[in-house]
Amino acid sequence: MSTPPELKVSEIFRRLAEADVDFVVIGGIAVVLLGSARNTKDLDITFATDATNLEALGKVLIDLNARLRGVHADVPFVPDARTLRHVSLLTLDTDAGWLDLLAEPPGGPPYATLRANATEVDLGGYSIRVADIDDMITMKNTAGRLQDLADIDELETIKRLRKRMG
Amino acid sequence: MTTLERALAETGHRLLLVAARSEPGVDETLIANRLRLSPGDRLKSFESFNRDARQIMLAGQRARGEHAA
Q: CA-CA to A153 of 20 to 30 Å: which in A8, A82, A84, B11?
């Protein structure tokens, strides 16, 4: 099994934010931003599916040299708005690491709700949205893999400690 | 439960019910320390750890004579 590329999360976030892409961070990186010390190999995001946003997201993906992960380079693939309109899940390899796009994350609320519940996080010069802890727990419950169950334990602990720490 | 007891009895065993306190699988101290950081610092910490972990993985592959990307 090959070693995953270095995951440059800040680089991807900065590019998405600068291009005004409407997205919410979910998955392992959301768990990290919420307070876990766990590691992950990829960045998962969900996004608004209106034409303007897909156009902006597609441009960022092309700039990041996004290609289908685990698929031979000969397979033609252009990660533009047209492609994004037709897929619900894309697992990509980019020059800044592995990036997974989920139009409708399993178990999650509709994007508008997920976005409204999300927390806006300032990363110094730009900001991103991170999924709400309860929405994360719901999605992790639906996914149900061992890592998701471990994440739920951590997220429940984070909730409890947040209350205690004020 | 009764069926299990009977089955065990047939093999010369008996059923014991033990309630053990579950050990927390989560390192609360580590999480509490993370919560004291800003999200930006949590991200920096993650990226640094991820970079180091990858270097260790690559070094391991080289030591085993495997192709390291």
A: A8
B53–A contact, CB cutoff 8 A: yes
Determine the residue of chain A that is closest to B52 in CA distance: A6
| B9 touches A at CB < 8 Å | no
CB pairs under 8 A between A and B: 74
Q: What residues of A are in contact with residue B36 (Cβ under 8 Å)?
A: 165
Q: How many helices (H) and strands (E) does chain A have?
A: 7, 7
Set of chain A residues whose Cβ sits within 8 Å of the Cβ of B24: 157
**ipTM for the complex?**
0.90
Cα–Cα distances in Å, from A106 out to A35, A93, A94, A136, B31? Answer: 23, 22, 23, 11, 26
Q: What are A129's strand-pairing partners?
A: A120
CB A7 within 8 A of CB A97: yes
**pLDDT digits 0-9 by tens, A55-91:** 999 999 999 999 999 887 777 788 899 999 999 999 9
